[in-house]
Amino acid sequence: MVYRYLLFHKPYDVLCQFSPSDRPDQQTLKDYIDVPEVYPVGRLDRDSEGLLLLTNNGALQHRLCHPRFGHDRTYWVQVEREPTEAALQALRQGVQIQDYRTRPAKVQRLDDPQIPERDPPIRFRKTVPTAWLALTLQEGRNRQVRRMTAAVGHPTLRLIRAAIATHPDQPPLQLQGLAPGTWRDLTAIECRRLESLLR
Prior knowledge:
Blueprint: E1 5-10, E2 14-15, E3 27-28, E4 39-40, E5 49-55, H1 58-65, E6 73-80, H2 85-93, E7 96-97, E8 100-101, E9 106-110, E10 130-137, H3 144-151, E11 156-164, E12 173-174, E13 183-185, H4 188-196
Parallel strand pairs: 2-3, 5-11
Antiparallel strand pairs: 1-5, 1-13, 4-5, 6-10, 6-11, 7-8, 9-10, 11-12
C-alpha cells in the first residue's frame, strides 16, 4: 500500500470530518481535500484553526494520537486580557478542569503572530485588551486549551495549532507556508521521520 501524508491548514468553521454535516452549508474537509482514504490524525474543533496531519497509515495514526507517546502540539492562543505571571505559571503546572488535572504545559507570551485575519473576525472590545500565548501540550482532551485558559481567568478568543512534533530531537511539522484552506504532501524527509516511529 502506498501511504499518503498531508498537512492541511484548517480554516475556522470547518468540521474535521469528510462525511457530510447535518447542515447543508457546513464545510468539511471534503470541501478542501480531494485525496481518497486519508483521515485526520487527531482533531481540531470547528472553531479552531491550524495544522492538521492526515494519512491513510492507521498504525501511524494510532501512534501519534495515543497519549502514552507524548507528542508535543503547539498552539497559538489569543486570550482576553494580559495574563499575569501567576496565571502562566498555573498553566505550566497543570490546572484542574472538571474531574481531571491537566499535565504540565510549556507556556510563553507570544508577539502577535503574522497570520491572516479570521473570517469572521473575533469579537473586539475597546476596553478589553488581548494577548497571544504559545502553549505546548502532550495531551489533547476535548476543548482542553479553551478550558485551561478559562480556568486561569483568560477566555480563549482564537486558537490556532501551529506545530506537531514527531521526534523530540527533530524539527516539528509546522503551519508556516500554508495559507488557510490549502494543503501539501509531506516531504520525503518528513515522511521518513514519521515512518521511523513505527520501527
